[in-house]
Amino acid sequence: MTRHHEGLSPALVETIAGLSAGTVATLLVHPLDIVKTRMQIHRSHGASPTGLTTVSVIRELMQTSHPVAALYRGLTPNILGSASSWASFFFFKARVERVVLGLKTSTGNTNASLTPQDYFISSGVAGLFTQALTNPIWVLKTRMLSSDRGAVGAYPSMWVGVRQILETEGWRGFYRGLGISLFGVTHGAVQFAVYDPLKKMYFRRRKRLRTSDQPEAHAQQKLGNEATLLLSSISKLVAGAVTYPYQVIRSRLQNYDAEERFGRGIQGVARRTWQEEGWRGFYRGIIPGVNFSFTIALSATPTLPGTAVLSKVNNGYGPVETRKKQESPPQDVPKFATLEEEREYRKQHLAAAFRVFADRVYDEGVAGHISVRDPILTDHFWLNRLSMHFSLIKVSDLILVDEDGLVVEGNEPINTAAFAIHSAIHRARPDANAACRAHSVYGKAFSAFGRPLEMVTQDALRFHGCHAVYDCSGGVVADRAEDERSAAALGPPNKALILQNHGLLAVGRSVDEAAFWIVSLERTCQAQLLADAAAAAGYEKKYMGDEEAAYDVQEVEGPDMGWLAFQPYYDEQMAETRERSCVKFSPLTALA
User: What CATH number is given to the structural domain containing 432?
Assistant: First the structure.
């Protein structure tokens, strides 16, 4: 089947966003860039250089016959350079991030996500590629910004500059200052090195100021918007100041007649600057320079350290929306003081999962099963007893069996044949603490086609690259060899299995997670069937491409989102139990 994907890839979206942001930001602060560049190349001998200041440069530009033209001289290469730099940076960054994520998921860890270190490395590599690609534009920009249009030897336009450089210096002239420019990628390293200690200092101070009725256990170690902006601004300013000398050396290397005026190469320029101007020479233009860089950063990037914000185009059909990555769920997976507490928690949520399945009619007679690993006896599993409706199951009704299906606790029969496939899955997947099998209507209907899901809905994305189809010959899975084959089909990185002519199966690190995968998979099968029916009537389906699907899953689906998504269903069951019992209960005994 041919897929028609009219949406934009994430890399292209970020490229467009960077292009737009770079253009707008440059228009805002171009005059500051002229001031900075002219101050950087200004030479004043002696230990106490005087002369050129921000005010004097602006006054000189305003006193020309065409002040606006003077303030915006060199705008073309500046816009072209800034816009292409931002576009290239976001393009390369998105590509490198996908490569890094692909390397992490290739080991079978489907829940892998990018860490702050991964983002830093990706940004650094993207910066190197971007600088190498755009250096010719920066050479032209530096030369045009450093001189008036009517000055001797000045380029009247960017294209005249291109021709003159080719004629007098050759293509190497376009790469003057490239070596020192690559040093600019350390700006991010310095910024992160400053930001992290500042954040720790902020939390320590907040802890000292916290009143006694706000214990540490309930304090959320998260920065508010104001604190994030403040700390990020400080770290940005410090990084700009620390790395500023390389900008002075770069401007002097890229200027007209650089070797005669400033010295040969990086060492030559640095040596002459030190000998003639002292340390002050390396900080010429720092006030407009830092303000310029800071304004560019705030205008062109909506991200601050620790966040990833993506402006995404909705396949050309809707407006641009801003979506923030959900790096971790707002509600945390609980931790337990003892294994006994964890056992009760798992049993409680297992009973709730059965009732959720009952509400959605995923059961059929004695068919349909959920099992969860016991945290104490890790080769034993809790499940439902035979011939009991899911809606009636309480914690006290659960049965504990070993991996061969022999009852250890509960003294009630189980569906031995049904548990066999669960046992095989738990053996094959030690990471799977829970397994769910459902005979839901839409799941059974879609399984008849024996094909995987298509990426035609947003919910389908959570199963992109992590679900499979198993042909179980249309009958009941009954022998051990068949069980083991189906378990093998559910090997990493899969978390869901479509059993052909049979139903749905999912695994998870918790029963909450596995149960939600079933709920979501059933709804996705329903949407797929409706979309197929509409397509049969002549309507064209729109598909999300593999690249976009993989990117969206990484951006939106955090490692515990399956567990988190099940909690509203659990709360619903607890509320219904309270209404039926009309008595006060504790969370660990409500379904007992």
Answer: 3.40.225.10
